[in-house]
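User: Reviewer 2 asked us to show a designed sequence for the structure in our supplementary figure. I'm pasting the structure tokens here. Could you produce the per-position amino acids so we can include them in the response letter?
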């Protein structure tokens, strides 16, 4: 994975130099969720998790006002879930927070026409991501229980579930963005993501499993194009 990340950085740098364009540095906040269904096929009701992202991208001209924009980001995703008995929270209530860290490769087709002194930013395209670390924390009153996230496509035994939570390493989906870039190079944009791949593994001891977890969310980015 380190080799792939380094290769992506070198490719982006090479493309930027060949096209004689600058590299953008960007970062911002994520508002993420894990949507889908549980093992019984019932809809998940998770809450938003606040994460962050940071990385680089480059604009490669493909036509007037149109660019291919590959990027490389570190992005924290996940979800938060509170369990309690309505209408008020009881003493036995608990909260589970899942944080998943990814190396992400957005591949965006960007429309960047002149608007005022700057440029309008409209983009869409796929993203690819690979999970590198994570943590799942359950808070029960004053007691906190942590499990380390491990990335596997399938899980054979259940005995280590006390210490570990499992997710698939690969994720992919669709990404759209809308924003504005000032003449000086500073920019801001909103983006939304819809994960298309299941991120939950298969468990060998569960039959007729209807679980389907997918990353979804949106974010706000600030950046500067050199």
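Assistant: Here is a per-position design you can include in the supplement:
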């Amino acid at each position: 994975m380190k080799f792939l990340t380094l290769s992506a950085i070198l490719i982006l740098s090479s493309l930027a130099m060949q096209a004689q364009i600058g590299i953008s540095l960007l970062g911002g906040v994520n508002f993420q969720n894990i949507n889908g269904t549980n093992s019984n096929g019932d809809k998940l009701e998770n809450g938003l998790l606040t994460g962050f992202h940071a990385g680089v991208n480059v604009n490669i001209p493909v036509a007037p006002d149109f660019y291919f924009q590959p990027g490389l980001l570190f992005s924290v995703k996940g979800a938060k879930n509170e369990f309690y008995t309505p209408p008020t929270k009881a003493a036995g209530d608990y909260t589970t927070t899942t944080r998943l860290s990814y190396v992400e490769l957005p591949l965006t087709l960007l429309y960047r026409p002149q608007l005022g002194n700057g440029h309008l930013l409209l983009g869409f395209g796929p993203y690819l991501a690979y999970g590198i670390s994570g943590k799942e924390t359950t808070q029960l009153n004053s007691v906190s229980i942590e499990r380390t996230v491990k990335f596997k496509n399938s899980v054979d035994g259940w005995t280590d579930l006390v210490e570990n939570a499992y997710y698939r390493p690969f994720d992919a989906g669709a990404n759209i963005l809308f924003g504005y870039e000032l003449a000086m190079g500073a920019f801001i944009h909103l983006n939304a993501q819809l994960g298309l791949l299941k991120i939950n593994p298969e468990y060998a001891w569960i039959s007729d499993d209807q679980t389907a977890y997918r990353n979804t969310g949106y974010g706000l980015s600030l950046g500067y194009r050199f």
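For the response letter, you might also mention the following. The longest helix spans residues 2-18. Confidence is low (pLDDT under 50) at residues 84-88.
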